[in-house]
Design goal:
The chain has about 325 residues and is α/β, with parallel strands linked by helices. It contains 12 helices and 8 strands. The strands form 2 sheets. A 6-stranded parallel β-sheet has the order 3-2-1-6-7-8, with helices on one face. It has a two-stranded antiparallel ribbon with strand order 4-5. Helix 9 links the parallel strand 6 and strand 7.
Length: about 325
């Protein structure tokens, strides 16, 4: 708790006036969305033998699970991406997941005039459930909330796409009894090629231009504090963000594991807060005296986040 208090005091004393966030899958775990790289995440539990693919493609996915969301794999075979993402695509349409305490903390920072920019590596769109202005959110890896053709870039109505996912794409998780036994292609309405998918950035594809515009601007040099939340910092080029800030900019890592060397030195610049993001960030919110503001959106939080509030005696 001493380190949490230290970070809270940076903010409450006015030392920190501008904050940036770099977030990864860990911030969304309390919403019920699995962290891809942590134990139990998609990359560890992927079963290529259940996916519609050639023996060679399954071997590639076995050796490198991230291949399931790679550009090369998708252009060769649409089904691995769509079969693995099927529950995520449909669950997003049905709004099965809600913004967590972590997302709401970023919103509170904005409400207090502290938020400079949010860089999210997540495709779940949970940041957009908050009141954070859209021009302060950079979705580094795209979003699952828009559907496009990777071939011709034509848009596809999301509800129509989800209808086709339900009817055309098999359920490898055996959760949907109405799903087809075998997958069949979903064709682009424009070019007719089977290259339609959510507008997420595939491995091997270029990042959105907003990312490189940020890199070439002064925004990261203008911040006093960078929060790095729930990310492994292994995916480039966004993993260089902690190195782009000024040498005197505070950096706080909220993560299950220490990454990027942040907090490994005994100095006053970096702090490593180890643990689940919702739990650590709730401690920060308490330290900042922002609990009442968080409770104002309690009913909009996912069940796990609400249960944590009750467990801590902050809500009933």
């Amino acid at each position: 708790m001493a380190l949490v208090t230290k970070v809270a005091e940076w903010i409450t004393t006015g030392h920190v006036k501008q904050i940036a966030f770099l977030t990864g899958a860990g911030i969304s775990v309390a919403a019920g969305i699995p962290d891809f790289r942590s134990p139990g995440g998609m990359y560890q539990t992927l079963q290529p033998d259940l996916i519609t693919a050639t023996a060679e493609q399954r071997s590639i996915m076995e050796l490198n699970p991230t291949a399931v969301v790679s550009r090369d794999m998708f252009f060769a075979n649409q089904f691995p991406y769509l079969e693995v993402r099927r529950p995520f695509i449909l669950g997003t349409q049905e709004q099965n997941w809600r913004a967590t305490i972590g997302h709401r903390f970023i919103e509170l920072c904005h409400n207090h005039g502290l938020l400079k920019v949010l860089l999210t590596q997540n495709i779940d769109g949970l940041d957009f459930q908050t009141s954070i202005p859209r021009d302060k959110i950079i979705s580094v890896h795209g979003t699952i909330g828009r559907i496009v053709c990777e071939g011709c870039q034509a848009e596809f109505p999301i509800d129509d796409f989800c209808d086709q996912v339900r009817g055309n794409i098999k359920d490898i998780y055996k959760q949907d009894e109405t799903a087809p036994v075998e997958s069949t292609p979903i064709a682009c309405l424009s070019c007719k090629k089977p290259l339609v998918k959510p507008a997420t950035v595939l491995f091997g594809s270029s990042l959105p231009p907003e990312v490189f515009e940020l890199f070439s601007s002064d925004q990261l040099q203008e911040i006093d504090l960078l929060f790095i939340v729930g990310t492994s910092l292994v995916v480039g080029p966004i993993n260089i963000v902690p190195d782009l800030v000024e040498d005197d900019t505070k950096r706080v890592l909220v993560n299950l594991e220490q990454v990027g060397g942040i907090g490994s030195n005994d100095d006053d610049r970096d702090v490593f807060l180890q643990g689940k993001s919702d739990e650590i960030i709730l401690d920060l919110i308490v330290g900042l005296g922002w609990v009442e503001e968080l409770l104002a959106v309690k009913d909009q939080l996912p069940e796990a986040s609400q249960a944590l509030l009750v467990e801590r005696g902050l809500a009933s």
